[in-house]
Amino acid sequence: MKRSRYVIYDHLEELSNQHKRVTTMDIAESTGLSRNVVTTYLSQLLTEGLVEKYGTRPVYWQPVQEQIDPFAIFIGADGSLKEEIDECKAAVTYPPKGFPVLITGESGVGKSYLAALIHQYAIEQEVIAKTGRFVTLNCADYANNPELLSSVLFGYRKGAFTGADQDTEGLIQQADGGFIFLDEVHRLNSENQEKLFTLLDLGKYYPLGEKEQAIEVDLRFIFATTESLDETLLRTFQRRVPMVIHLPAFHERPIHERLKITLSNFVQESKNLNKEFDLSLAEVFQLVNQQYRGNLGDLKNRVRLLCARAFMDQKEQSVIELGTKTEGGIRIAHDTAFDLEINRLFEDRFTQLTQAVLVFEKLSEMNECRFLIQTEIKKIHRQFNRSDLTTLIVDSYLEIIKQQLAIQRRRYGVFNQLEKDSLQQAALILYLFVEAKDQQYQLDDVIERVKELYPRSYYLIGELIDDLRKTLQIEEKGIDYLKCLFLFILIGEEHQEIEKVPFLCLLLSHGSMASSIQTVVNSLCQNYLFEAFDMPIDASMKQISLEVTKFIQKQTKQNQEVILLFDMGSLSQMYKEIKKQSDADLLVINNLTTSMALDVGLKVQQQMSFKEIAKKAESYSELTNVQYFEGISQNRNIIVSCMSGAGLSEEIKRIMNQCLREDTEIITMDYKDLKQTLSSHDLDYFSNTQMILTTTDIDSFEALSILNIYDVMEQSGAEQLKQLLMQNGESEENCEALLEQLLQFFTLEGIGARLQFLNPKIVIQEVQEIIEKYEQYYELKLSGRDLLNISMHIALMIERLMVNPEEESEPEILDDEKKEFYGVSKSIFYAVEKKYNIAVDDYELSLMYELLRMR
Ligand SMILES: Nc1ncnc2c1ncn2[C@@H]1O[C@H](COP(=O)(O)OP(=O)(O)OP(=O)(O)O)[C@@H](O)[C@H]1O
């Protein structure tokens, strides 16, 4: 509910709009609240700076008039031309007198319009008086008569030339206190240029026929040119006019701005003719996607012509139709306005939306998450005004999404369960995304989670958005959030079918056969089974493999089984190329036909196992060859999988690669994937796997050796690892090196993670020396796990004592053994105590004693 004081504000605004001088009593009557309550709220609004008062007895109230930025109506000012507009603003306000601006760009890009807005901005900013004029001159109009131009610009004295019968002031004089805008400035001849430069440099000029008395003026300059700045005159100009603003051609502007420009032209015509238009989107997009020599000016004329013709033919009709609306259309009403306030209202709504609805905990609840998005979108939708241009743009986006969805539906056989309002919601989300500029997105973990939960759906949405991006030329920034929102809205519950498909299935062909087979199979199966790549006729194996690599890289799950059907070429070469990309199972079948793809597709759909599909494929036809590999890798391998994350597994892989024979492949796997792989395959699958190293115990085949990395820190675990490695031909030396490196890594790693101040690399050495001394003195050999434990204890103790020196502890009564231990310890710790300025007291020593005595 709206806060009461804002209700008061609304009433005040309404009363003021009726041109009333509003008193407290007026508001009390209008709201039905008591005078006292109204007074209290008004004072709160006054403090908030939302209202102001004037007069005494009675006091009148009025809403504070917000300063309107004149550039706000310049389409692109808060979008692609934001930087340029900021520069214009700086040129106006730069003390003491701003500086001149040179606007470049093709004909009709908005140079004159921008110049006029700069003038308005200067008035708004009070850097010139309200009476400061905006005087313009197109130098091209006088290009053949420089004398005349000079007289028009600088004025003349009586008798300066034949017919000069009185002193006449020039445009420069008229612009005194304001702006002069010189369009097509490159058409000035050299003499006039000189005069202009003197004026720019000294603020003085001589009218024609005046040699003695220079006239001093205080004016600002804006120049414009359609020429490139390489031209000599313009280079001299640039030295004096440091601020150059380039306006891009219409076709270079982003699509949403081209749409705004085009539609606002129609709105203007609707106003002129006082008629509504039913506009076909095909017509709009034809206009939007064209290049015009005269840019926005030409476009304006084109729209005017179109409207005029249709008006002539359909004068009697209340709504005029423009183009055929088979591909959708939008209604332009004469009161359709481009409401800047509304626009501003939505500016950062996309970020708010993502933050409000992409809640990590809810992501796995498809329905709930979608409901949240829909609720937020509905709230935003309610703020839309039917007569606003924004609505038309959203409608256009809706049509574009519809078209792209139709393409994707044909290709992938999905997007079949769209809810009624989904398209409208997606269009609004897209609108908010496009308008949300310079927003900070900080939900990376959310994206990762969505990718993990819905990998195939995310891929499909990615393809849709890639196509949309091409059509709309939208920015990359934040695109992943758009994908997430689209996924919930457009795929929704359909994800269950999409995610069920367990393999990556690819069709590859020279020419367009792959994509047409893809269309048939995916549409018949009503699911995304196959991705297809049509390759040029002369595509090399390298190009093909590059395409496949790119595709695999786009997938969230990298190690998925791949089924690849292709038309011609060497089967074994294709197999080899693709196998390089992934360790996962691979089935390659050649001589692709539609019925073969359909057969494979159906088997995949029925969740047949990889091996069964591969076996069945062998019987396709005499012409077909099949090669497949089911197994974790063809090489002798060790799988490393740490529950605490890929980083740790990668580190262990690095160490193993350093220490072990080169021909042992170390494969890292996500812990969940490992569990799944173990449960969904038989032992044969792991025939080349020597062992699996994990951080958590997993149940598996008895014949498969699974070792806990932490057990390897123990004597018995270390022995087991060594034995296994040596059975497979690893030298004892390599095994010892590996054990030592692992131990060091875990010690360093564990301690490093816990130490806040000390450098673990240095401390660990000192700690190792301490432990070695104990081992020597007591003739001990500590096992890996104990070593880790005690090293950790000592390192953390050193830091703890540094940061929080302990109070002297109560002396305890010591037996002989302890006495000896304390004595030895004092000398062992001596160096460290000195270095870190700490005192290892009896209490600490008693802990150490306990730790070591237990060994
Ligand atoms: N950013 C914009 N937003 C809205 N309308 C614009 C914008 N830029 C230009 N226009 C409109 O486009 C038309 C052409 O603009 P303008 O005349 O300023 O172009 P120009 O670059 O000065 O052209 P020329 O070089 O031919 O003089 C005008 O009707 C103007 O109102």
Automatic annotation (TrEMBL):
Pfam families: EIIA-man, PRD, Sigma54_activat. It comes from the Bacteria. Keywords: ATP-binding, DNA-binding, Nucleotide-binding, Transferase. Residues 502-639 form the PTS EIIA type-4 domain. GO terms for cellular component: membrane. GO terms for biological process: phosphoenolpyruvate-dependent sugar phosphotransferase system; regulation of DNA-templated transcription. GO terms for molecular function: ATP binding; DNA binding; transferase activity. Residues 74-308 form the Sigma-54 factor interaction domain. The keyword Acyltransferase does not apply. Residues 758-855 form the PRD domain. This is DNA translocase FtsK.
